[in-house]
Design goal:
Layout: E1 20-24, H1 31-41, E2 46-47, E3 51-52, E4 67-68, H2 71-79, E5 83-89, E6 92-97, H3 98-106, E7 111-114, H4 117-127, E8 131-137, H5 141-151, H6 156-170, E9 178-181, H7 185-200, H8 209-217
Helix pairs in contact: 1-7
Length: 219
């Protein structure tokens, strides 16, 4: 039995534009580990899979970790404007494919990627309104070097080169929106999760917010 009053119309859904979450750090400071643990906690996040000319490391899977391509294919993608950013790091080229990122953002999906400061600068020029930049710092240089040696993916010469470059990489922290000191990996993932939650609630990303509020005001 009803009181004769019409049921109120449901409020319109609020469509949201997605964002690209960028994690940068010196090699070994934890950006890749944080990225993968973040996605494990929040399956709604999509990993942006970069292309690279470097060979796959043990355990890496094409299409999951990177798309492994040759230099000629990489150069062609860059020339055609198919990469949102690209850079050469320690003798190998890396880049972010444009199309999957732009399609995801338009569909309201959030993407996460771990790239260096050079790539982040290019993304800032191309996607500034859709970009959330997080820089990961190590707790100390000793901890950074220990991490590089423990993972045993590089030669002693490469570890030394990465350590020598870390000071330059860390100098770019002011270019980022957020900075996290990675003293504990799980705590760092939780902090990045909090950033994701806050960014999803930003007014500028909620495209239909004005219509929603007008509906509320109109009763």
């Amino acid at each position: 039995m009803t009181d004769g009053k019409a049921a109120p119309e449901p409020s319109p859904a609020i469509q949201r534009r997605g964002f690209l979450l960028v994690l940068s750090s010196p090699s070994g400071a934890g950006k890749t580990t944080i990225t993968h643990r973040l996605i494990a906690r929040d399956p709604s996040l999509t990993l942006s899979v970069s292309v690279t000319t470097r060979p796959a490391r043990p355990g890496e899977v094409p299409g999951r970790d990177y798309w492994f391509i040759d230099q000629a294919r990489f150069d062609d993608m860059a020339a055609r404007g198919e990469l949102l950013e690209h850079a050469q790091v320690f003798g190998h080229c890396y880049g972010t494919p444009r199309r999957p990122v732009e399609e995801a953002l338009a569909a309201g999906r959030d993407i996460v990627t771990d790239i260096d400061w050079q790539g982040t600068q290019q993304l800032t020029a191309n996607l500034e309104r859709d970009l959330v930049r997080v820089f990961i710092l190590p707790p100390s240089l000793a901890a950074l070097e220990a991490r590089l040696q423990t993972r045993a993916q590089d030669s002693a010469e490469t570890v030394a080169a990465r350590m020598a470059k870390s000071a330059e990489e860390m100098s770019h922290w002011p270019e980022y929106d957020y900075v996290i000191v990675n003293r504990d990996i799980e705590a760092s993932v939780t902090e990045v999760q909090a950033i994701v939650t806050a960014e999803r609630l930003k007014r500028l990303r909620q495209l239909d917010l004005a219509d929603f509020v007008n509906h509320l005001r109109g009763g």
